[in-house]
Amino acid sequence: MQLQLVVAITVAILAVVFALQNAVPIKVSFLTWKFESSLALVLLITVALGIIMGLLVSVPSKIKRMKLISSQKKKIQELEWNLQRESKRKKEEEIEREEPELPPE
Length: 105
Fold this sequence. Notes:
Elements (H helix, E strand, L loop, with lengths): L1 H20 L3 E6 L2 E6 H60 L7
Antiparallel strand pairs: 1-2
Helix pairs in contact: 1-2
């Protein structure tokens, strides 16, 4: 947790330094959109959009993995329950074998 905080603060400081050093205004044209903004802002927005798109692309595989893990955990629980039941049954059988049968009276 602390490592994540240190990394986040470091990235934020680097982003501020980058923005201060790249405050040159530029014109951006995309299809019919045209606007003027600082170079740093345009680059940071582009990076943010790239990160968001990357996260959106990875969501389906993460959901699939979580479903697989959940089903595997359920299967493990079921197998452990079956193992305990079988172990208990074998112990009961051993106890029955060890007890001598009483002769009929």
